Structure formats: C-alpha cells, structure tokens
Amino acid sequence: MSDFKADDGKQAVRCLEHLLYPICETNLHTTAALLAQESQQSVSMFGNSSGYWTFPVIQRFLLARGMKCTSASKHGQWLLDSLHFIQSHPGLVGLIDTDTLDSFVLKSGEWTSTSGVGLDTVINAVIVHRMWSPLLPFYTKNCAFHITIDDDEMNRYECQPSSCWRVEPVSYKGRAAAVKAQLQLFKKSPIMMSNNHEIVICSPSKHGWSTETVLNYECMSIEDATRSVSETLADRLVEHIETHNKGWSVMAHALFSALQQLGGHLRAGEMTEFTDGEKELLATYEQGLKKT
Hints:
The chain is of the alpha+beta class. Among the domains are: 11-131, no CATH class; 132-173, no CATH class. It has nine helices and twelve strands. The protein has helices at 11-19, 25-39, 55-63, 83-86, 136-141, 176-186, 222-244, 248-261, 276-291; strands spanning 67-74, 77-78, 92-97, 103-107, 110-113, 125-130, 145-149, 152-159, 167-171, 191-194, 198-205, 208-216. A six-stranded antiparallel sheet has the order 2-1-6-3-4-5. A three-stranded antiparallel sheet has the order 7-8-9, with no helix packed on it. Helix 2 (25-39) crosses helix 3. It starts with 10 loop residues before the first helix and ends with a helix.
C-alpha cells in the first residue's frame, strides 16, 4: 500500500502512466468503488477523494484491461524464473514496487522507473503482463485451442472461434474407452503411463490397449519407483544410441524439455567443457578484441 503521508496523491497515476499511457483519474475512482462493492468494504480502504490510491486499485485497473499482476518478490526473495529470462516474454508490460507504487519499464535493455530509483531497491514487487499474450498466435490464425490443467485431469476447456473463444468445459470422467480409442487413432507404438498406484506400458492392438505393469508403488515410494524407472530408461537409451551411432540430439532435446518442465534453467555458458580458468582467459581475450 502506498504511504498516504509521503504520497502526493498522484503516485498511482504516475505508476500507471509510466507503464501504459495517460489515464483519467475518474477511472481510478470508478475502480475503487468497484473494489469496495466486490469486497463489501468502505471505499476509503482503497483511496480517498484526493487520490492516494492503494495497490489493489492499480491491480484491479490493470486486470480490467487484460493485464495480470503476478507476485515477483516478497521480502526481498525472488519468486519467479530469472528476470533476464522473463524479459523475453512478449506480453511483459513492466514491474511495480507494491510498497512505493513505483513502476519500472524495460527500454533498450535498461529498467527505468518513475522516480529514478534502481531496480535493486525493490523489496516487494509484481510483474505486470498481458494475460492474453500466450494465446495471441491462435487468435491471429483464427483457430481453436484447448486447455488442460495439471490438477484437473478429467476436464478440458475448449475454445472455438465460432463462439469467440468462449470457454466451454468438457468432462472426460467415465469416458475412458473413448479416450483410449482416440489415442489408438494417433499412436501406433507403446506409451508409458502412470497413476497413484503403478507405472504401466500400454501397447495398441486390434482389441484395444493391453497394459503391462513396470513397477507397483505398493512395494516402494513413488519417488523411488520413478527414479528406478528413469535410471533404467537412461541406461537403455544411451546403450541404444551408442549401438546405432545416432540419437544424441533426440536425448538432448528430451532432457532439456524435462528440465524446463521441472522449473530448471540452462544458460548457454554452461554448455562448455572449459574449466573456470579457461573461461576467464577466454573472456579476457574477447575483451582485448573489443578494444582493438
């Protein structure tokens, strides 16, 4: 929340205009009234007639315009992927210090703020991004897309151009046979599947899918079981690649995808066999080339 004593009543306006474009303060009055109605609290909780708007007003104002404020740091602890990685997000709008309502935008590779302070002074912050940006390619191509959620396995959310991409939830509960039949149309080789009890290999056949249990979780923990399967698969894959003298690129892409899925990151500089001393020597040599 902005400090009413230090704030001149215009900080929220400066914050938004630095991120977006010139705005009318009437919009903030309207947003504060809407928040009061939604939360059943007094409008004075979000500001007053002279301004002094709080961060929730800014957040609600941005949400109404298709932009989300995602918590980025709390008590100085960064919560997201590296800022350098996020900077490549095409939907990135900027960053807001939720304590001072100072906003930051990226221009020519540098972060600039409304007050001139550096980004390193921010303790609590949110990243502002356009929520629709990941879906823009599908809107542009005028094609349908479907959304599934990790913790909602039996539902799929379908969005069709004919309904202006209105979200339509479709439940697959009790439709296991239909799902299996659909899988069989597009998959002609075995697949590995797992649930809370076991890991199985599913193979297509004329009469449906046959399954063979690889490991059962009753005899060991899920983590131990999946680790054992992973180690066996890795050994078999390396053996197969060395036998046929091809396939390292497939393994590299698969491992990179797994790393990203688990939230890990890989920098280009880490893909080298140079020692730390050799890296420093190379960096010094490159600096010398730039000066000549």
